[in-house]
Amino acid sequence: MKIVLDVFGGDNSPFAQIAGAVAFVNEQKNTDVVLTGDSETILGELKKYKYETSRITVVHAPEVISNEESPTDAIRHKKESSLVKAYDLLKTEEDIGGMLSSGSTGAVLTGSVLKIGRIDGVQRPALAPLLPTRGGGRVCLIDCGANVDCRPEFLEQFALMAVCYMRRVHGVENPRVGLVSVGVEDHKGNALTKEVFATLKKLPINFMGNMEARDALTGDYDILVADGFVGNVLLKTVEGTAKMVMSELKSAILSSGSAKFGALFMKKAFNKLKHDMDYNMYGGAPFLGAKKVVVKAHGASNPDAILAALRQVNKMIEADLVAGIKEEMVKLADLTQGDAAHVE
Amino acid sequence: MKIVLDVFGGDNSPFAQIAGAVAFVNEQKNTDVVLTGDSETILGELKKYKYETSRITVVHAPEVISNEESPTDAIRHKKESSLVKAYDLLKTEEDIGGMLSSGSTGAVLTGSVLKIGRIDGVQRPALAPLLPTRGGGRVCLIDCGANVDCRPEFLEQFALMAVCYMRRVHGVENPRVGLVSVGVEDHKGNALTKEVFATLKKLPINFMGNMEARDALTGDYDILVADGFVGNVLLKTVEGTAKMVMSELKSAILSSGSAKFGALFMKKAFNKLKHDMDYNMYGGAPFLGAKKVVVKAHGASNPDAILAALRQVNKMIEADLVAGIKEEMVKLADLTQGDAAHVE
């Protein structure tokens, strides 16, 4: 089996991508990696590492898609870009099961829609990263920005896809699903979430009801369902607040001599915290609902983050997540038809 | 001038409210306080303090509205509750310029709408608390949950009301306004924010364009505009994330002997951070657009928080915020008419 890795895109590209790929093939015996990008640069960089050379192949792609470009234009016209090449390979090569990129999120999502397509029955694929929770756990937030305007049926499918993902890939047998709302009571919410609430109630999932964003990271939920606009705001608020608290802590420490002295003894504790809060460690954000495994790694990914994301892609392929989501969509269609029949 | 304070409601009620009221009249020479609630309890508690007794009056209100009750039912039927009494006084007594409550947010908002009403021209009043930013600043987030389903015109008015508030009450001459979105580019957003973006562009305010939630607390904005659902999610995510980071830090410290030792030298730094992050210190959330000054204090308010919120109510009355917002609405109507005339 193989994973294709878009080498150009992200702050530390191509070095982090190449180092991560080498670490991955050295650790993982059954999955090889295909790298797309400027072959001269990549081959030159690869020479620095020790690994079984047959396990990493390079496909030349001289162009790079930047964050500033229109995703649709870039996917349509930059046919020689590392991302489009990666998608072309993912689409045509049967032994390539998944794609990883740390490039422009918009281009990755657009490319997936235009080049790979949706699993039958899926109305809208969705971005579903993991966030750290208290005590070292994780929670899956779906959708984080792929769909900023949603109909209730989209969120219903988001919930089902995330349940399948958390079960098959992360071993959470009966994931606890919360609907992001403005209060925990059943009647709280806006027009969209009220409709979604009624729908989720009927699904054969462990639906815990409405939840408040202040409990997003308590560890009380395995999955948080939101439309892409709200999910994006939640995700970025977590990021911004964590950064703000850490920076305020730093300046509080620097403003006092005794605190500076005390901090010397706390380096390990601070590093542990930084590590726990570091979403780089939790791999990338899968684009659930795409016909093949597609994962977007953070733009700031370092080699460890790329390695973690490659492991995750590998697990998603091994667990046959795509087939799992397909089954869920068939079951949902049966359920909805049954409902409709019942109404008639 | 007088402020009416709903004494019953919130975790530390009535003690925090009474202590805060006493501290306020001892500090503030021109504004008296009227307390509503069970008079026996209040008078008994007041005996413990030293203050000019004529400056605090008590109006008996034996009932209490809880967080669990339907706000509309409670406001309609609990006529002897501390909140409804407070609103009755605010409505009828001319020398009472504002009301403060730390009770149920829903009941405070509903009470304001049913009992006090909106300033002419205001379509929807909105909750607008201040959040702490890096380096000890503040940012006003409007709306935080009063209006979960919004039309673009509502957000346009939110922006204008918040500008007036930040200018008159917090002395920010030309507040920088950001529209909460999923990216900083002009075209980013959902159907609602795209319309709002176009509207805000035309207003005579310092509109900085779309902003991302990760920059909410950087200090780059004085005002963040969002619909009440999104604003509520943002506010509660800040709260939950700050709590999570602090608790992870605590457990990282407790897990190491040397860190525990180091922490002894950092008590002051930690307390400074806790203080900076404590929204209790920033007073309550004003309900902008109501015909008189209405402020909701946090349910967990301690005496310091009540004192801070009373100062804020006082400042809002002195600055004649209500008149200011009224003027803004007249100007907006002229502007909109001008636009319409121009189109014709």
Compact summary:
The structure is a homodimer of 344-residue chains. Chain A has 344 residues and is of the alpha/beta class.
| Helix segment tally of chain A | 12
Structural class of chain A: alpha/beta
Helical fraction of chain A equals 40-55%
Listing every helix as H and every strand as E from the N terminus to the C terminus, the arrangement of chain A reads EHEHEHHEHEEEHEHEEHHHEEHH
- Low-confidence runs of chain A (pLDDT<50, min 5 residues)? none
Oligomeric form: homodimer
How far apart, in Å, are the first and last alpha carbons of chain A? 48 Å
Q: What is the general shape of chain A? A: globular
Instruction: Note the beta-strand portion of chain A.
Output: 15-25%
Number of DSSP strands of chain A?
A: 12
What is the rounded Rg of chain A?
21 Å
User: For the largest beta sheet of chain A, what order do the strands appear in spatially?
Assistant: 3-2-1-4-12-11-5
Mean pLDDT of chain A: 92
Largest interface: A-B, 61 and 61 residues
The profile of the biggest β sheet of chain A is: 7 strands, mixed
Note the topology.
The structure is a homodimer of 344-residue chains.
Chain A: E1 2-6, H1 15-27, E2 32-37, H2 39-46, E3 56-60, H3 71-77, H4 82-92, E4 96-101, H5 105-116, E5 126-127, E6 130-133, E7 137-142, H6 152-168, E8 176-181, H7 191-202, E9 206-212, E10 223-225, H8 228-254, H9 257-264, H10 267-276, E11 285-288, E12 293-296, H11 303-318, H12 321-343
Parallel strand pairs in A: 1-2, 1-4, 2-3, 4-12, 7-10, 8-9, 8-10
Antiparallel strand pairs in A: 5-11, 6-7, 11-12
